[in-house]
Fold Acyl-CoA dehydrogenase family protein.
Amino acid sequence: MDARFTPEQDEIRRTLRELLHKRCGPVELRAALDTPAGHDPALWTALADQLGLPGLALPEAYGGVGCSVTELALACEETGRALAPSPLLATAVLTAPLILALGADAQRADLLPRIASGTLTAALAVPGPALTTALALTGHDPHGTWAGGGRAGGVQARRTDDGWRLYGEAGQILDGHSAGLLLVAAHTGGFARSRVLLFLVQADAAGLTRVRQTALDATRPQARVQLRDVQAELLGCEGDDVLAPLARLGDTAAVCLAAEAVGAADRVLERTVEYVGQREQFGRPVGSFQAVKHRLADAYVQVQAARSAAYYAAWAGVAAEGEQAGGLALAQALGALRGAAAEGIQLHGGIGFTWEHDTHLYFKRAAGDELLFGPVHRLRAWAADAAHLFEEAGR
């Protein structure tokens, strides 16, 4: 294993960091959060036109760059540093891989080039509380009951003379209010032949209602989607197994989320170190006190360990499957981000608790990601169960 980054990978990181430094500072970030979309469309266009970010991991045949999950994770690390609100996670990480894996030739030829160019954004509509189960991050449901349907909630699909119709609702959909395309997981077939299928729903479909929800982490806009007799297009074929591709997607998504969390943790720790070096107490910088040094050193070790875990998971995702490296890396990274953000709030003193300061945004990112993709102890428990760790230890 060669742990060094290639010149191309270093260039992706450098260019993206420079662009976000210019276009996504604290003022621009807060302004974007107050818009109806929850992100800056001009920044998204720049990320697509200058860096090809939406199509970074898509094949060149569909207008993508043709890179691997490693490059996508490095890009996510930089967007995490800036807490950049964008449709990158919803579009490029959660939705595009499913269209690539399951879509018919015509569907891929129509949708993926537009996604790669940044002109089409997409969102995966899975009921928020069930997202980790659907992605097999905290458990696995071989029957797909997490999709709900009917009286169980979620979304139900029915075949009619003119195609498929969807009914129901789902909440906590990342960028679901602004996406041009929804990829909806729906339950169909009743109890005897129940199964989960994925459907394409256009943003302007009749009967579709989308409302932005108030979320703990404003940098990850979420929406509630209601479908009342909405016409939908089946992704791929009716006989396709969607649960296995969703489970494979979970490991890739976990790698990208872990890289995001590492970037955010590294940045909030940098800001805290800078602040304690400037703030004086008793005639000397606060950062010169041994107790403060110890706390920051512990946070630094956690961040570096999380970075190593995220990089290894990105490499393992390319080299092998089934190691559960993504879930473990995500657990490590979320813990490091929560710890670094908590230290940042405390060591910033009085201003660390104020709404005007940016430190609380990093803490909310950690807490919000745990609500959506965790919590940490369940991520670790499922990875241990999947690896039969406790079974082997008990022999």
User: Anything to note?
Assistant: The chain has a mean pLDDT of 91.
